[in-house]
Hints:
The strands form three sheets. Strands 10-9-8-11-12-13-14 form a seven-stranded mixed sheet, sandwiched between helices. The chain contains nine helices and 14 strands. The two termini are about 25 Å apart. About 45% of the residues are buried. Helix 2 (about 70-85) packs parallel to helix 3. Helix content is about 30%, strand content about 25%. The chain has helices at about 20-30, 70-85, 115-125, 155-160, 180-190, 230-245, 260-270, 295-310, 315-325; strands at about 10-15, 35-40, 45-50, 55-60, 90-95, 130, 145-150, 170-175, 195-200, 210-215, 220-230, 250-255, 275, 290-295. Ribose-5-phosphate (R5P) binds near residues 179, 230 and 233.
Amino acid sequence: METSDLDGLRILTGNANPELARAIADQLCVPLTATEVGRFSDGEIWVSIADSVRGADVFVVQPTCPPTSETIMELLIILDALKRASARRITAVVPYYGYARQEKKVKPREPITAKLVADVMTMAGASRVLTMDLHTLSIQGFFNIPVDNLPGGPILARDMEARGLGRDDTVVVSPDVGGVGTAKALADRLSAGLAIIAKRRPGINQVEVLEVIGDLEGKRAILIDDIIDTGSSLVSAAEAVAARGAREVYAYATHPVFSGDAVDRLQKSLIREVVVTDTIPLPKKKRRPKIRTLTVAPVLGEAIRRVHAHLSVSTLFDQYWKEDKK
Ligand code: R5P
Protein backbone atom coordinates (compact mmCIF):
# COMPACT_ATOMS: atom_id res chain seq x y z
CA MET A 1 0.00 0.00 0.00
CA GLU A 2 1.38 3.45 -0.98
CA THR A 3 1.58 5.63 2.13
CA SER A 4 0.51 8.57 -0.07
CA ASP A 5 -2.83 6.72 -0.48
CA LEU A 6 -3.36 7.34 3.21
CA ASP A 7 -2.56 11.06 3.21
CA GLY A 8 -4.89 12.96 5.51
CA LEU A 9 -6.17 9.80 7.21
CA ARG A 10 -6.23 9.89 11.01
CA ILE A 11 -7.24 7.18 13.46
CA LEU A 12 -8.29 8.00 17.02
CA THR A 13 -9.65 5.96 19.88
CA GLY A 14 -11.42 6.40 23.19
CA ASN A 15 -11.17 3.92 26.06
CA ALA A 16 -13.60 1.29 24.70
CA ASN A 17 -11.17 -0.87 22.70
CA PRO A 18 -7.76 0.79 22.28
CA GLU A 19 -6.12 -2.59 21.45
CA LEU A 20 -8.33 -2.97 18.39
CA ALA A 21 -7.66 0.65 17.34
CA ARG A 22 -3.91 0.03 17.63
CA ALA A 23 -4.18 -3.18 15.60
CA ILE A 24 -6.10 -1.31 12.86
CA ALA A 25 -3.54 1.52 12.85
CA ASP A 26 -0.70 -1.04 12.63
CA GLN A 27 -2.47 -2.76 9.77
CA LEU A 28 -2.59 0.53 7.87
CA CYS A 29 0.91 1.62 9.02
CA VAL A 30 -0.63 4.85 10.33
CA PRO A 31 0.18 6.12 13.84
CA LEU A 32 -2.75 6.61 16.20
CA THR A 33 -3.46 10.32 16.68
CA ALA A 34 -2.64 10.98 20.33
CA THR A 35 -5.92 11.50 22.16
CA GLU A 36 -6.48 11.72 25.88
CA VAL A 37 -9.90 10.75 27.17
CA GLY A 38 -10.08 11.20 30.92
CA ARG A 39 -12.43 11.98 33.79
CA PHE A 40 -12.82 15.03 35.98
CA SER A 41 -13.20 14.25 39.68
CA ASP A 42 -16.99 14.37 39.33
CA GLY A 43 -16.91 11.73 36.57
CA GLU A 44 -17.47 14.09 33.63
CA ILE A 45 -15.42 13.19 30.55
CA TRP A 46 -12.72 15.42 29.10
CA VAL A 47 -11.03 14.93 25.75
CA SER A 48 -7.81 16.36 24.40
CA ILE A 49 -6.60 15.69 20.84
CA ALA A 50 -2.86 16.36 20.61
CA ASP A 51 -2.43 16.98 16.87
CA SER A 52 -4.25 19.11 14.33
CA VAL A 53 -7.05 17.37 12.46
CA ARG A 54 -8.01 20.40 10.35
CA GLY A 55 -9.11 19.15 6.92
CA ALA A 56 -8.38 15.50 7.85
CA ASP A 57 -10.37 12.33 7.13
CA VAL A 58 -10.77 11.05 10.69
CA PHE A 59 -11.84 7.58 11.89
CA VAL A 60 -12.77 7.19 15.56
CA VAL A 61 -12.63 3.56 16.69
CA GLN A 62 -15.01 3.13 19.61
CA PRO A 63 -17.39 0.17 20.03
CA THR A 64 -20.27 1.24 22.25
CA CYS A 65 -19.87 -1.80 24.49
CA PRO A 66 -20.17 -1.96 28.29
CA PRO A 67 -19.88 0.30 30.17
CA THR A 68 -22.23 1.42 27.41
CA SER A 69 -23.29 4.84 28.69
CA GLU A 70 -19.62 5.74 29.24
CA THR A 71 -18.41 4.50 25.85
CA ILE A 72 -21.25 6.25 24.01
CA MET A 73 -20.63 9.50 25.86
CA GLU A 74 -16.87 9.28 25.16
CA LEU A 75 -17.63 8.79 21.47
CA LEU A 76 -20.00 11.76 21.37
CA ILE A 77 -17.50 14.05 23.06
CA ILE A 78 -14.66 12.96 20.73
CA LEU A 79 -16.94 13.57 17.72
CA ASP A 80 -17.78 17.02 19.04
CA ALA A 81 -14.10 17.85 19.58
CA LEU A 82 -13.25 16.74 16.02
CA LYS A 83 -16.10 18.72 14.51
CA ARG A 84 -15.02 21.88 16.36
CA ALA A 85 -11.41 21.22 15.26
CA SER A 86 -12.50 21.39 11.59
CA ALA A 87 -11.97 17.75 10.60
CA ARG A 88 -13.10 17.40 6.96
CA ARG A 89 -14.95 14.10 7.45
CA ILE A 90 -15.52 12.07 10.60
CA THR A 91 -16.32 8.35 10.50
CA ALA A 92 -17.52 6.73 13.70
CA VAL A 93 -16.04 3.21 13.60
CA VAL A 94 -18.37 1.36 15.93
CA PRO A 95 -17.56 -2.36 15.56
CA TYR A 96 -20.23 -3.18 18.15
CA TYR A 97 -23.31 -0.95 18.24
CA GLY A 98 -24.71 -0.86 21.77
CA TYR A 99 -28.47 -0.50 22.31
CA ALA A 100 -29.03 -2.26 18.96
CA ARG A 101 -31.47 -4.67 20.62
CA GLN A 102 -33.76 -1.77 21.58
CA GLU A 103 -34.69 -1.02 17.97
CA LYS A 104 -38.48 -1.21 18.11
CA LYS A 105 -41.40 -0.76 20.46
CA VAL A 106 -42.68 -4.14 21.54
CA LYS A 107 -44.96 -2.75 24.24
CA PRO A 108 -46.58 0.67 24.63
CA ARG A 109 -44.51 3.47 26.19
CA GLU A 110 -41.13 1.87 25.37
CA PRO A 111 -38.22 3.88 23.89
CA ILE A 112 -36.42 3.13 20.63
CA THR A 113 -32.97 3.68 22.02
CA ALA A 114 -31.08 2.43 18.95
CA LYS A 115 -32.61 5.38 17.04
CA LEU A 116 -31.82 7.83 19.84
CA VAL A 117 -28.16 6.73 19.75
CA ALA A 118 -28.10 7.18 15.94
CA ASP A 119 -29.51 10.70 16.33
CA VAL A 120 -27.01 11.81 18.94
CA MET A 121 -24.04 10.34 17.04
CA THR A 122 -25.05 12.29 13.94
CA MET A 123 -25.73 15.46 15.91
CA ALA A 124 -22.35 15.21 17.64
CA GLY A 125 -20.56 15.26 14.27
CA ALA A 126 -20.37 11.81 12.64
CA SER A 127 -20.41 12.08 8.83
CA ARG A 128 -20.49 8.30 8.35
CA VAL A 129 -20.60 5.10 10.37
CA LEU A 130 -18.60 1.92 9.91
CA THR A 131 -19.91 -1.00 11.93
CA MET A 132 -20.06 -4.79 11.94
CA ASP A 133 -22.92 -7.28 12.18
CA LEU A 134 -25.61 -4.83 13.28
CA HIS A 135 -28.16 -6.73 15.33
CA THR A 136 -30.87 -5.62 12.89
CA LEU A 137 -30.19 -4.24 9.42
CA SER A 138 -32.98 -1.69 9.76
CA ILE A 139 -30.77 0.29 12.16
CA GLN A 140 -29.01 1.55 9.01
CA GLY A 141 -32.18 3.50 8.29
CA PHE A 142 -32.02 5.22 11.68
CA PHE A 143 -29.15 7.28 10.25
CA ASN A 144 -29.38 9.91 7.52
CA ILE A 145 -25.65 9.49 6.86
CA PRO A 146 -23.93 6.54 5.11
CA VAL A 147 -23.60 3.36 7.17
CA ASP A 148 -21.28 0.53 6.12
CA ASN A 149 -22.22 -2.66 7.96
CA LEU A 150 -19.43 -5.22 7.55
CA PRO A 151 -20.31 -8.90 7.86
CA GLY A 152 -18.40 -10.88 10.49
CA GLY A 153 -19.48 -14.14 8.83
CA PRO A 154 -16.45 -14.53 6.54
CA ILE A 155 -14.06 -14.24 9.51
CA LEU A 156 -15.98 -16.86 11.47
CA ALA A 157 -16.46 -19.13 8.45
CA ARG A 158 -12.77 -19.07 7.60
CA ASP A 159 -11.99 -20.24 11.15
CA MET A 160 -14.55 -23.06 10.96
CA GLU A 161 -13.03 -24.26 7.70
CA ALA A 162 -9.47 -24.00 9.00
CA ARG A 163 -10.48 -26.23 11.92
CA GLY A 164 -12.21 -28.70 9.64
CA LEU A 165 -15.59 -28.16 11.29
CA GLY A 166 -17.62 -27.67 8.15
CA ARG A 167 -18.20 -31.12 6.75
CA ASP A 168 -21.37 -32.91 5.76
CA ASP A 169 -21.86 -34.24 9.28
CA THR A 170 -22.24 -30.63 10.44
CA VAL A 171 -25.42 -28.65 11.07
CA VAL A 172 -25.37 -24.87 11.47
CA VAL A 173 -27.91 -23.87 14.09
CA SER A 174 -29.58 -20.50 14.48
CA PRO A 175 -30.45 -20.07 18.17
CA ASP A 176 -33.39 -17.84 17.22
CA VAL A 177 -35.63 -17.20 14.24
CA GLY A 178 -34.06 -13.76 13.64
CA GLY A 179 -30.68 -15.33 12.86
CA VAL A 180 -31.86 -17.74 10.17
CA GLY A 181 -30.46 -15.69 7.26
CA THR A 182 -26.94 -15.68 8.68
CA ALA A 183 -27.11 -19.36 9.62
CA LYS A 184 -28.38 -20.33 6.15
CA ALA A 185 -25.59 -18.39 4.40
CA LEU A 186 -23.04 -20.14 6.58
CA ALA A 187 -24.61 -23.56 6.10
CA ASP A 188 -24.54 -23.07 2.30
CA ARG A 189 -20.94 -22.04 2.41
CA LEU A 190 -19.91 -25.02 4.58
CA SER A 191 -22.17 -27.42 2.64
CA ALA A 192 -23.69 -28.20 6.02
CA GLY A 193 -27.26 -28.73 7.18
CA LEU A 194 -29.42 -26.07 8.82
CA ALA A 195 -31.42 -26.16 12.03
CA ILE A 196 -33.46 -23.44 13.68
CA ILE A 197 -34.42 -22.94 17.28
CA ALA A 198 -37.60 -21.11 18.22
CA LYS A 199 -37.05 -19.41 21.56
CA ARG A 200 -39.00 -17.00 23.71
CA ARG A 201 -37.98 -14.66 26.46
CA PRO A 202 -40.32 -15.08 29.46
CA GLY A 203 -38.51 -12.14 31.18
CA ILE A 204 -35.55 -9.80 30.69
CA ASN A 205 -32.42 -11.87 29.91
CA GLN A 206 -34.34 -15.16 30.31
CA VAL A 207 -34.56 -17.78 27.57
CA GLU A 208 -36.92 -20.67 26.93
CA VAL A 209 -36.42 -23.00 23.96
CA LEU A 210 -39.78 -23.78 22.38
CA GLU A 211 -38.83 -25.96 19.42
CA VAL A 212 -35.86 -27.26 17.44
CA ILE A 213 -36.41 -27.62 13.70
CA GLY A 214 -33.92 -29.78 11.79
CA ASP A 215 -32.11 -33.12 11.95
CA LEU A 216 -29.33 -33.20 14.54
CA GLU A 217 -29.00 -36.93 15.27
CA GLY A 218 -25.29 -37.84 15.41
CA LYS A 219 -24.28 -34.45 13.96
CA ARG A 220 -21.81 -31.75 14.96
CA ALA A 221 -23.80 -28.60 15.75
CA ILE A 222 -22.36 -25.13 15.20
CA LEU A 223 -24.42 -22.45 16.93
CA ILE A 224 -24.09 -19.05 15.30
CA ASP A 225 -25.27 -15.78 16.86
CA ASP A 226 -24.45 -12.09 16.53
CA ILE A 227 -24.21 -11.31 20.25
CA ILE A 228 -23.41 -13.31 23.37
CA ASP A 229 -24.65 -11.31 26.33
CA THR A 230 -25.54 -13.47 29.36
CA GLY A 231 -24.81 -16.63 27.36
CA SER A 232 -28.27 -18.00 28.20
CA SER A 233 -29.40 -18.27 24.56
CA LEU A 234 -26.39 -20.34 23.53
CA VAL A 235 -26.33 -22.56 26.62
CA SER A 236 -30.07 -23.31 26.26
CA ALA A 237 -29.61 -23.91 22.54
CA ALA A 238 -26.68 -26.26 23.19
CA GLU A 239 -28.76 -28.29 25.65
CA ALA A 240 -31.66 -28.42 23.19
CA VAL A 241 -29.54 -29.67 20.26
CA ALA A 242 -27.78 -32.21 22.50
CA ALA A 243 -31.21 -33.47 23.58
CA ARG A 244 -31.97 -33.90 19.85
CA GLY A 245 -28.91 -36.16 19.42
CA ALA A 246 -26.12 -33.73 18.40
CA ARG A 247 -22.81 -35.41 19.27
CA GLU A 248 -20.81 -32.20 19.84
CA VAL A 249 -21.58 -28.49 19.96
CA TYR A 250 -19.49 -25.44 19.01
CA ALA A 251 -20.58 -21.81 19.29
CA TYR A 252 -19.54 -18.81 17.15
CA ALA A 253 -20.61 -15.20 17.66
CA THR A 254 -19.32 -11.80 16.57
CA HIS A 255 -19.82 -9.68 19.67
CA PRO A 256 -18.77 -10.98 23.13
CA VAL A 257 -20.73 -8.70 25.46
CA PHE A 258 -20.29 -11.34 28.20
CA SER A 259 -22.26 -9.63 30.97
CA GLY A 260 -22.65 -10.99 34.51
CA ASP A 261 -21.41 -14.56 34.86
CA ALA A 262 -21.67 -15.33 31.12
CA VAL A 263 -18.10 -16.59 30.77
CA ASP A 264 -18.50 -19.09 33.63
CA ARG A 265 -21.89 -20.19 32.30
CA LEU A 266 -20.27 -20.91 28.92
CA GLN A 267 -17.20 -22.56 30.45
CA LYS A 268 -19.43 -24.94 32.48
CA SER A 269 -21.74 -25.68 29.55
CA LEU A 270 -21.54 -28.63 27.20
CA ILE A 271 -20.30 -26.34 24.40
CA ARG A 272 -16.82 -27.51 23.37
CA GLU A 273 -15.53 -24.13 22.25
CA VAL A 274 -16.89 -20.58 22.03
CA VAL A 275 -15.30 -18.48 19.27
CA VAL A 276 -15.85 -14.71 19.24
CA THR A 277 -14.17 -11.64 17.74
CA ASP A 278 -12.44 -8.64 19.25
CA THR A 279 -15.14 -6.07 18.35
CA ILE A 280 -15.43 -5.93 22.15
CA PRO A 281 -12.30 -6.40 24.27
CA LEU A 282 -12.03 -9.48 26.48
CA PRO A 283 -10.35 -8.44 29.73
CA LYS A 284 -8.07 -10.96 31.46
CA LYS A 285 -10.62 -11.65 34.20
CA LYS A 286 -13.13 -12.81 31.57
CA ARG A 287 -10.79 -15.16 29.71
CA ARG A 288 -11.62 -18.84 30.00
CA PRO A 289 -10.04 -21.92 28.33
CA LYS A 290 -13.12 -22.56 26.19
CA ILE A 291 -13.23 -19.01 24.77
CA ARG A 292 -11.12 -18.10 21.74
CA THR A 293 -10.96 -14.70 20.02
CA LEU A 294 -10.46 -13.87 16.33
CA THR A 295 -9.43 -10.39 15.26
CA VAL A 296 -11.50 -8.14 13.00
CA ALA A 297 -8.64 -5.61 12.64
CA PRO A 298 -7.60 -6.58 9.09
CA VAL A 299 -11.17 -6.31 7.79
CA LEU A 300 -11.84 -3.00 9.53
CA GLY A 301 -8.44 -1.68 8.42
CA GLU A 302 -9.13 -2.53 4.79
CA ALA A 303 -12.63 -1.04 5.00
CA ILE A 304 -11.17 2.20 6.42
CA ARG A 305 -8.61 2.32 3.62
CA ARG A 306 -11.38 1.90 1.06
CA VAL A 307 -13.65 4.52 2.60
CA HIS A 308 -10.71 6.93 2.67
CA ALA A 309 -9.88 6.21 -0.96
CA HIS A 310 -13.55 6.39 -2.08
CA LEU A 311 -13.44 2.75 -3.13
CA SER A 312 -16.26 0.26 -2.86
CA VAL A 313 -16.58 -1.39 0.53
CA SER A 314 -19.10 -4.01 -0.58
CA THR A 315 -16.63 -5.54 -3.06
CA LEU A 316 -14.39 -6.17 -0.05
CA PHE A 317 -16.98 -8.69 1.15
CA ASP A 318 -17.20 -10.30 -2.30
CA GLN A 319 -13.45 -10.59 -2.28
CA TYR A 320 -13.47 -12.24 1.13
CA TRP A 321 -16.12 -14.74 0.15
CA LYS A 322 -14.38 -15.47 -3.16
CA GLU A 323 -10.97 -15.91 -1.52
CA ASP A 324 -12.50 -18.16 1.06
CA LYS A 325 -14.19 -20.29 -1.56
CA LYS A 326 -10.91 -21.01 -3.44
C1 R5P B 1 -30.88 -11.81 20.35
O1 R5P B 1 -31.76 -11.70 19.53
C2 R5P B 1 -29.44 -11.87 19.97
O2 R5P B 1 -29.24 -12.29 18.65
C3 R5P B 1 -28.69 -12.79 20.92
O3 R5P B 1 -29.20 -14.10 20.74
C4 R5P B 1 -28.89 -12.38 22.34
O4 R5P B 1 -28.61 -11.03 22.50
C5 R5P B 1 -28.03 -13.20 23.25
O5 R5P B 1 -28.30 -12.83 24.57
P1 R5P B 1 -27.98 -13.80 25.76
O6 R5P B 1 -26.55 -14.24 25.60
O7 R5P B 1 -28.18 -12.95 26.99
O8 R5P B 1 -28.94 -14.93 25.72
